[in-house]
Every structure is written in structure tokens, then in C-alpha cells.
Amino acid sequence: MVSLLTLAWIYFRIGLIFVGGGYVLIPLLNHIMVEQYRWLTLRQFLDGLALSQLTPGPLAMLATFTGFRSGGFLGGLVATVFIFMPCVVLMLIIGRNYTRLKNIDMIRNTLDGLLPAVVGLVAAAACNLGASSLAGVRDYIILAAGFAMFKWTRVSPMLVILGAGLAGLLLD
What we know:
The chain has a domain at 4-104. It is 80% helix and 0% strand. The protein contains seven helices and no strands.
């Protein structure tokens, strides 16, 4: 059982770099949860990631899941609160001063520099997840179908996820 203080500190630090959306954090979460602390196996991490896609705030739900697995109900609560705390405080500060801050070149240039790195991190996460979860032709067909549907149609991502689960069930 992990101490609640340890969970709070880990998820607070993760929350500090929650820039660009949750998918940027997949490599970091995998490193912390699977490799460093061994709270989850790679299979459990991938299952938790897949299940979390069915909920609002998917990677925050993964934090709740991991916190619960490593510290029970209170662990899940602490992980959830502390992963959101930094961004809530930051948004309260930025929200009050947005009009003034958006015109500062240094801030605008910094944010413009973050965007390509975020795209790179998401691409790296996709490669890592693909390498560890794509095992056969069926998986690549489901991957291609999901990509095509998400990229070139207006089908809800929820329907793509549910369809992929159904395809996995039927094509096994």
C-alpha cells in the first residue's frame, strides 16, 4: 500500500505538466505506474487506458484507477484531486489575467513552442502503445478502421471505441 502523501506528490507533479491534453502524459504515466512503481502491469495499464476512454477526462480517470489500485478509495480520491489541483489553480490565475497575458510576446512564443513538442509526445505515445498492444492482423485492421473513421468522418469517438471493442469481441 502506497502512502497517501506519496500519491499526492506524484499526481501533483503529473498535474503540473498536464499541458496539451492527457495524451501527452501517456509515456510519463506508463513510466511511473508500470516501470517505476509497478502499481500496474503493462496489460493492466493498457486495459485501464482503454476503459478510461469511455469516461470524461480519460487520463484523469486512469489516475483515479491507479490511485485506487495502489491506495484504495482514499488513494483514488487523492490521485484525482491532486492531478487536477495544479491546472485548476493555474487556470484561475490565467483566467483573471488572460487579456493582459495574451499580448505578452514571451508567453505567446512559449506556448507556440510547446505545440510541436506536444504533437511529438502524442506521436511517441501512440508508437509505444502500438508496439506493445498490436499483435496480429486483426489488431492492425481495427487500428486502420478506427483511424480512418476518426480522421475522415464525423463519427463520435465513443462509437469508434465501442465499435472497436465489439470488433475485438467478434473477431477473436
